Amino acid sequence: MSGAMSTVERAFGIEVSHVFGKERAGDVEVANGFVAKERAGDAAEVAANGFIAKGRACDVEVANGFVVKETAVDVEVTDAFTAEERACDVEVANGIIATERDGDDVVATNGFVTKERRTGDDAEVAHDFSPLLVVYKSGRLERPLILPLVPPGHDDATGVVSKDVPLSASSFARLYLPPEARRRRRREGQAPRARLLPRRRVPATCVYHRFLNDLAAACPAVAVSVDYRLAPEHLLPAAYEDSLAALKWVFSAADPWLAAHGDPGSVFLAGDSAGGNICHHLAMHPDVRAAGLKGIVLIHPWFWGKEPIAGELEHRSPVVGSSRMAKKKSLWEYVCPDAADGVDDPRMNPTAPGLENLACEKVMVCVAEGDHLRWRGKAYAADAAARAKANGSEPSTVEMFESMGVGHVFYLLDPDMDEARELLSRIAGFVNPKLTSERAAAAAASLTIE
Asked: Cis omega (within 30 of 0) on the bond before 73?
């Protein structure tokens, strides 16, 4: 056995590799950096040790870093986050929380992984856009990356208060009010309006709720997170339409928090991945041009095109067919069937027609060194800079920031890492230039204190 992060061994002629490997064995004990041990009698399989354990067994005990124990045929499973089950012939999936029922028709669910035993069209994949979306022939959908939802309220780490507001029958918004806004209102002798409305829905996942709390406090600014309709249940342009309606609602200052603390002359749009794509689309809309938008912040935006641009060649040329690049093309065409020219539709490839009609003064594009979308982001920033120059704007109106050594939306996975703090600080400084670099950095760093 070699080091804790990568071990390879042979048992009954079978090669086993992990931490994130697979093992098939007759009677073997395995230990790795995430502390997985298995003694198997018949047909045991363990995959992706540490975060996911799968077991098919006659008489098997499995333990890993998340403390899962199983003994078949009458199975009881428990883990550190409290999951219990009893079944006859089961497939077990865990990581955070696992539950299974019904013996022959078993469903296992948890915070990160869903494993289901299905048959027929309910088991046959029609479209595989994993890890974002998997569509089965029956119409059943799986979204592996959907994380637990969290309610609004007071955030102890930042002092930000949030509330949910219904915008329509299909769209909600979560508002975030930083403590500085409430303090300012008190100084002006007005009663604070940070009263929570009755919660009707929870549109925010845990990682975005954390990021919006942090961002609202760092700027400081009133932040609005939009819960728009998702494809394929609601194909594009549904998400664009919901987001446009939400932006118009923000400009109207119909909500008391926006009326008391918002500045309609300093509205910024920010979004990551598909959200970055939506922000660009809104910034090109004629209704938004009429309202007046201050700026946009595109974080790892989801743009693409038929022909590779500089930097993409090495990522595209060796792979065809089922590659992630092909998936990206087919996913867009699946969720936007009316696309004018596939992935060269202006909504997906905005640099093809140009950015002359951007309805904002300032543009910030954030990319990540380990993200294959970064080249499109850089091209967007270059086009925005050329547009600014042609219009006689200051060079500071366009900013391109690259996070080194990290991947797509990395800051959601580890908001306490230095690169995540730096990204937050740069965004806050772009939105609010009055912040000194030292103050912005200190604000971003202080957000991690619990």
From this structure: yes
Count the residues in the chain.
Answer: 450
Residue 188 CA to residue 209 CA, distance in Å, equals: 29
Domains in the chain with CATH codes: 91-142 (no CATH), 161-442 (3.40.50.1820)
Dihedral, CA of residue 223, residue 183, residue 432 and residue 245, to nearest 10 = 20
- Indicate the pTM of the whole model: 0.71
Q: How far apart are CA 211 and CA 412, in angstroms?
A: 7
Q: pLDDT digit string (tens) for 20-47?
A: 222 323 333 333 323 233 333 333 344 3
Beta strands in 303-397 (DSSP E): 340-343, 360-368
CA distance 420 to 423: 5
Active site residues: 273
| Cα angle 301-236-299, degrees, rounded to a multiple of 5 | 10
Sequence-ordered list of residues with C-beta below 8 angstroms from that of 66, at least 6 positions apart, any chain: 50, 51, 79, 80, 81, 94, 95, 96
DSSP, res 397:
G
pLDDT of 143-178, one tens digit each?
A: 988 888 999 999 999 999 999 999 998 889 999 999
Angle at CA 332, nearest 5°, toward 329 and 333? 85
Burial of 433: CB neighbours in 10 Å, binned 0-12, 13-18, 19+? exposed
Amino acid at 82: T
State how far the Cα of 309 lies from the Cα of 396, in Å rounded to an integer. 25
Question: Tens digit of pLDDT for each residue in 184-208?
Answer: 655 555 544 444 333 445 558 999 9
